[in-house]
Amino acid sequence: MNLTATFYALGAIALWVSVASLGVLLQHLPPFLLTGLSLLIGSLLALPKVLREPGQWRIPLSTLALGIYGLFGYHFMLFMALRLAPAVEANLINYLWPLLMVVLAPLLLKNMRLRALHLGAGLLGFGGAALAILGSGNAGSDAGVLLTGSAVWGYLAALAAAFMWSSYSLLTQRVAAFPTAAIGLFALVSGLLALLCHAALEAPVNLNVRDWLLLTITGLGPLGGAFFLWDKALKLGDARQIGILSYLTPLGSTALLIVVSGRAWSWSIALAALMIMAAAGLGTRAR
After folding, report:
1. Given CA atoms 209, 254, 88, 126 in this order, what sign does their dihedral have?
2. What percent of the chain lies above the pLDDT cut of 90?
């Protein structure tokens, strides 16, 4: 795998690791308000480049639609899933997206084949992610809640979110080449749409100085800077290998939550780490 692409991918993953912990600190904010403001702040990262070169945002409407599909569509479906279904189970289904990247790459991209080693590494990585999430002490949803009508719709929404992010990541390599600064336009329009959802679906809230500080960190990091790094990684690297590497996200997120919350470490986290690192190693060997 291209070493530069690996660094970009790891940079995006490192930022995404903080999402859950920042979400805990901002859990009093409505999710669409949180997403909308964070995306708008994240879009500002492209501003210096766009001011120097205004043409950076002159992209086809189809490319802009793809960006909105990825950034807004993914978050919309994920939040609907978390509203309708138990959070742990919905989040686990959402983390099918790295595996879907591996499986869908040969279908959506030219000159790519699905090899047994890629598929095996993807399944091993998903097993590690499942162990990290379910074994972290967050599990234990009421069995009666797991199969209610609304929960089923939530699971479907989580699956749709996983498909949206994986297909968006791959399809950005199918459209005409566009500058990475265009991610700022994707974030800007997606942020405005999220704020419209907030106005329509959520109660208004007042923000304090601490909220704005944490929103700025979220916007510049996991809901902003990470998208730019992710785009660079996909432009330079092998989507199948990047997908497998992405299983470090739920592992790192769970580990950081344990540190932040002060909970005890468990054997499941260590085993999950070994499984995901083994999956990443296998994935980088496959061609």
Report:
1. positive
2. 44
Our measurement of the distance from residue 50's CA atom to the centroid of its chain's CA atoms, rounded to an integer in Å, reads 25
Q: Where are the alpha helices (DSSP H) in the chain?
A: 3-16, 19-25, 31-43, 47-52, 61-68, 74-84, 87-94, 97-108, 116-134, 143-146, 149-171, 183-201, 209-220, 226-236, 239-245, 248-261, 267-285
| CA gap 279, 277 in Å, rounded | 5
Query: How far apart, in whole angstroms, are the C-alpha atoms of residue 137 and residue 75?
Result: 25
Q: From the CA atom positions of the chain, what is the Rg in Å? A: 18
Give tens-digit pLDDT for 206-249: 999 999 999 999 999 999 999 999 999 999 988 878 888 887 88
Q: What is the pLDDT of residue 143?
A: 46
pLDDT digits (tens, 9 = 90+) for 39-81: 999 999 999 999 999 889 999 999 999 999 999 999 898 888 8
- The residue extents of the domains of the chain are 3-285
Work out whether the CA dihedral 268, 271, 277, 283 comes out positive or negative.
Answer: negative
> Of 125, 219, 228, which Cα lies nearest the Cα of 172?
228
DSSP labels for 87-108? HHHHHHHHTTHHHHHHHHHHHH
pLDDT of 190: 97
The token pair at 49 is: 């480049």
Say how far apart CA 5 and CA 283 lie, in whole Å. 14
Token duo for residue 229 = 């790094």
Sign of CA dihedral 141, 143, 145, 149: positive
pLDDT per position as a tens digit, 146-176: 556 677 888 888 889 989 999 999 999 889 8
Phi-psi region of 11 (alpha: psi -120 to 50; beta: other; left: phi over 0): alpha
